[in-house]
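Chain A, query sequence.
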Amino acid sequence: MGDTTNHVKKVSISKFFIYLVLAIASFLSIFPLYWMFVMATNHNSVINKVPPAILPGKELVTNFTNVLNTIDFFGALGNTLIVAVVTTVGVLFLCSLAGFAFAKFEFKGKNILFLLVLMTMTIPPQLGLIPQFIIISKLNWLNDLKAIIVPGLIDAFGIFWMRQYISSNVPDELVDAARIDGCSNFRIYWNVAIPVIIPAFATLAIIKFMYVWNDFLWPLIVLRDQSSFTIQIALRGLIDNYVRDNGMILSGTFWATVPLIVVFLLLNKLFIQSLTEGAVKS
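Chain A, predicted structure.
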C-alpha cells in the first residue's frame, strides 16, 4: 500500500512539473503578442516611460486611424491576402502532386531527381535574387503580383514533406486496388491520396501562408508602386526618419498579424493531427 502511495505521489509531482513547464512555455509564447497589443493601445509618451505600461490603454482606435491615414493598409492587406492564398493553394496542389509521384511511382532517375530537389533546400534564397529579377523584368512582371506568386508556386520542402507523408500514410495496396479498378494516375491522386493527406495539407498551408505573408525582401525588390505593395512593404511606410510613433507602428503590426492567427486557429486541429499520426502509428 505504501509503495502504491509513493508511486502516485511521484506521478503527481512529475505531472505538476510538466504542466508548470508547459504553462511557462505558453506564457513566453503568448507574451510578445500581448505586449504588441498593449503597445498598440497606448500613446507614444506612455510607451516611452520607464517602466513601460503593462496594461492595454485607450488609444487603439486613434493609433489605427493614424495607420490608415499614413498608408493604404487595407489595399496592402488585400494584395497580401491574394498572394498568400493563391501561392498556398498552388503549392498544396503542385507539391502534393510531385510528392505523390515520388512516393508511389517508379520511373527512371527518380532518386536522382528527388536528391536534386533536396539539394535546392541547401541553397540560400538570396543567391537566386538576381537571376529571378532578370527573368521577372524580361517578362514585364515588375509591380505585378505575379512576380511574387509564380516563383513561389514550387517549394522543395513542400515536395519533401508531401512525399514523406504520402509514403507513410497512403498504402500501396490501396493504390494498386485503384489501378485494378481502372483509375488513371490523376484520379488515384485525387480520389485516393488527397482524402488521406488533408492533415499534411494543413501543416504545409500554415508554413507556406506564414512565409508568404511575412516575406519582405523579394516583394521589396519587384514591387515599386504603392498600389501593388504587400502588407510588409506598406508597414515600412509607418517608420518616419525624424519622429517615431511606436503606438502607430505596433498598431499596424498587430492588425497585420491577426490574419495569421486566424489561419492557424482554423487549421490548428489538422496541424496537430499531422504531427501526431506518425507517433501513434509507431
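The mean pLDDT is 87. The two ends are 35 Å apart (CA to CA).
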